[in-house]
Amino acid sequence: MRPIFTWNLGGRSLELGKRTLLMGIVNVTPDSFSDGGEHLAPEAAIAYALKLLDDGADIVDIGGESTRPSAKVGYENPAVSADEELRRVLPVIAGIKREKPAAIVSVDTYKAPVARKAVEAGAEIVNDVSGLQWDPQMVKTLSALACGVILMHTRGRPDEWHSLPAVPDMVVLVKRELRERAQAAITEGIKRDRIVLDPGFGFGKRYEENYPLLRRFQEFHDVHFPLLAGVSRKSFIGRTLARNGKEPSTNERLFGTLGAEMSLALKGGHIIRTHDVRACAEALKLADIAS
What we know:
8-stranded parallel β-sheet
């Protein structure tokens, strides 16, 4: 039985824990690892987001900058400026809210100016993959906004991941650092009931370091926050599915992705972030009955 939480999004709240919620991924980027370029035009991204909502997504997560391995992000002068990121995401957020005013929209950004303007445009959640680590203004900005906050665990920046040292126990490290980052956010004025935590599969973790996060996911309940998990199509899944030394392409990892996502749901994940909303929604109908 997973713990029950009420997630405060500012103008409304979401009950977490009675069933597994789904967050659908909409990348408004030319270079994301899985679907870069497919929804770069605002009209295409809006149509795709609406389809994900129809397929069963409870939330759509709009991202305007790729954080794929080796990407130059999280610096003072990133590859994608705040202005360019806003140019990509704001029309999509506005278009979704115009077509479906009740839709819950999340913005996937680590930049404070993008978070602020996205919330003003109708986003109710800010999903910061850096866990408030990359933009020193983000925590102050979020403390003044009325929205939900996702703090994801990341080690280093994408262009540093290949050189990070191995960690003896990744679960212990991630638990400790997520607890510290959540507490720092609360100290700076972000209310506890606004925060969801994400252990950050693939973000600064070697292939083999992701498997303990999956196997021991239930241990993250020790931190006493709602949990989001995103494993969709990631490289550690591709490695597991390899045949004759060849890993499947990202769009050939559906069945492996579903296996990992159902494991996370059965171990108490509150929200699953996925590319394949319809397949995951149907699988979750059975997993939630069993959990």
